[in-house]
Amino acid sequence: MPITVAALLTALAMLAHGKEALPASSDPALEARVLGIAEELRCLVCQNETIAASHADLAVDLRKQIRVQLQAGQTQQQILDFMVERYGDFVLYRPPFQARTLLLWLGPFALLAIAVAVLVVNVRRRRRSALAQEWSPAQSQRARALLDGDAAGRP
Amino acid sequence: MKKFLIPLAIFLVLIGFLAVGLGLDPREVPSPLINKPAPMFSLPLLDAPDQQLTAQDLRGKVWILNVWASWCAACRIEHPLLVEFSKMGVAPIYGLNYKDKPDDAIGWLAKFGDPYTRSLSDREGLVGIDFGVYGVPETFVIDKQGVIRFKQIGPVTPEVLRDEIIPLVRKLGA
Questions:
Q1: B130/A45 touch (CB, cutoff 8 Å), yes or no
Q2: DSSP string for A55-89
Q3: Distance CA B121, CA B127 (A)
C-alpha cells in the first residue's frame, strides 16, 4: 500500500513543475547589465544584500529603474550617481574610498600594525632584560646542580 | 601601577564608543537630500485622479510631506498624531500615497481619519525614489523655497513632533 502511494506521488511530482520567474525583459544582455549595476548597490531594506539579490519591493523597483535608465542610454556611473544622490553613499555596496571612510578601510590594517609593533617591542624588551641579567656564582652553581641532577636539586 | 593604566585607558575609550554607538540605529540611512531642493514632481490627487499637483504649486509655503500607505502597519501608529497635528493648523500635511491602490487608500483614510490637505497617488513609487524613500512611513519638512529641511525615518513620535518638527516649521515661518 505505501509503495502505491509513493509511486502515485512520484508520478504527480513529475507532472507538477514550478513556474520559473519570467525574465523581466526579453533581452538577456540588458538583464546582465542590470544585474551588474544592481550588484554594486545595497538594498536599503535588507542592508546586507545587494539590489541584485534582494527580494524586497524596493529592490524590485530599483532594478526596474536601472533597466529603464539603461534603456534610455545612461551609463553605469550615471546610474550609480543617480542612486547616491537620492540615498547617500550608503547605497553603494562597496564604501567609496574617501577621507571620511579612511578609518573604515585602513582601520583593520592599522590595528594589525599596532598589534605587531607592540608584540615586537615586548619581545625585544624581554629578550634584552633576559640577556642583561647577570648570574651570581651561587645562582650559576645551583643552576648546574639542577641540570646535572645533584642532591641539592631534584634529578 | 603604570602597567594597568594603558589597558584601562583603552577600555574606557572603548566604553565611550560603545555608549554612543549602542544608542544609534544602524539601520537608519541619513538622507543626502537635507538642505537640497525637493525633487520636482507632478502626481494625480488621490481623490481626484484627473487633477495633478506639482511641486511648484506648493512654493511659498512651509509644508509637510508624509509618505504613507494603507498596507503599512507602522503608519497606523503615527496616524492619530498626524490627525491631531493637522487640526493645530501649524502647517499643511500632504500625503504621498506610496505604491498603494487608490480604493484601499481612500477606504483607509475614511476609517482612520484624514490629516492631509491633499493626498497624492504615487502608484509606481517613482516619486518616492526621487525623495530617497526606502521605507514607510517617512516624513519630510519642506520650506517655502521648496528645499527639504528635515526627514523623519519611521513613524513620527510625539517627541519628534514637539522637539523637532514644530519648532522647525515655526522657524521656517509657517
A1: no
A2: -SHHHHHHHHHHHHHHHTT--HHHHHHHHHHHH-G
A3: 10
Please check the confidence at residue A155 and state whether its pLDDT lies above 70: no
A89 vs B contacts (CB less than 8 Å): 32
Q: Would residue A31 count as lying in a domain?
A: yes
- Condensed to tens digits (0 to 9), the pLDDT of residues B24-58 reads 887 788 889 999 999 999 999 999 999 999 999 99
- Provide the domain limits for residue B122: 32-171
In this prediction, residue A14 carries a pLDDT of 65
- Which cell numbers hold the place of B130? 526621487
Same domain, residue pair A80 and A106:
no
ipTM of the complex as predicted: 0.84
End-to-end CA distance of chain A: 79
> Is the pLDDT confidence value at A110 over 90?
yes
Size of chain A in residues: 155
Rounded to whole angstroms, the Cα distance separating B128 from B65 reads 11
* Inter-chain touch A86–B131, beta carbons under 8 Å: yes
pLDDT at A20: 45
Strand partners, B43: B53
Please write the tens of the pLDDT for every residue from B85-106. Answer: 999 989 999 999 999 999 999 9
Q: Which residue of A44, A84, A89 is in closest CB contact with B134?
A: A44
Mark whether A83 and A33 lie in a shared domain.
yes
Cα–Cα distance measured from residue B64 to residue A86, given in angstroms and rounded to the nearest whole number: 19
